[in-house]
Amino acid sequence: MLGGALMELSDKSLEAIGQYVKENLAGWLQEMPQKPEGTQIKNSAGLSGSAQISDQRAEQGSPRVLSDTVLLERLIRLEEELKAQRTIMETRFEAIDKRFDDLLHYMDKRFYSVQWVMGLGFTLLAALMAVFNFF
């Protein structure tokens, strides 16, 4: 046991504690961090947002409200940056797809030309073998 013997409080001590709590309770409640009322993040397609904070909490100027607004603004900037990165990536992927399609078309063209040259070569070789065989 840490405290040793139990401490008994008299009615006078309990009344003094109650009076102390009544006097200081309002101040303690104001110091407690609370969730800001009216804070909303509106998303359009899940990418951008705006924060709205009630006038009552903003007038108090509590550090919790200020830090929430800063965090919400940072979150909004982050979402906008992610949207910009996504559009950049999409354009790059489209450019890469176009490049691969062009390369595929070029390789097909080369393959068909090689195929025609080989076909003509074998035809010429077969014709020459037929001519020299008969003479």
Describe the protein in words.
The chain has 135 residues and is mainly α. It is built from 3 helices and no strands. About 15% of the residues have low confidence. The protein has one domain.
Order of helices and strands: HHH
Helical segment count: 3
Strand-pairing-aware structural class: mainly alpha
How many discrete domains?
1
Query: The biggest beta sheet, please?
Result: none
Q: Categorize the overall geometry.
A: rod-shaped
Radius of gyration: 41 Å
Helix content estimate: over 70%
Strand fraction equals under 5%
Uncertain runs: 39-58
Q: Termini, distance in Å? A: 122 Å
Based on the structure, what is the oligomeric state of the protein chains? single chain
Give the number of DSSP strands.
Answer: 0
Kindly report the average pLDDT value. 77
Q: In brief, what are we looking at here?
A:
The chain is mainly alpha-helical. It is 73% helix and 0% strand.
Tell me the layout of helices and strands.
Blueprint: H1 11-31, H2 55-60, H3 63-134
Identify the notable features of this structure and list them briefly.
135 residues, mainly alpha
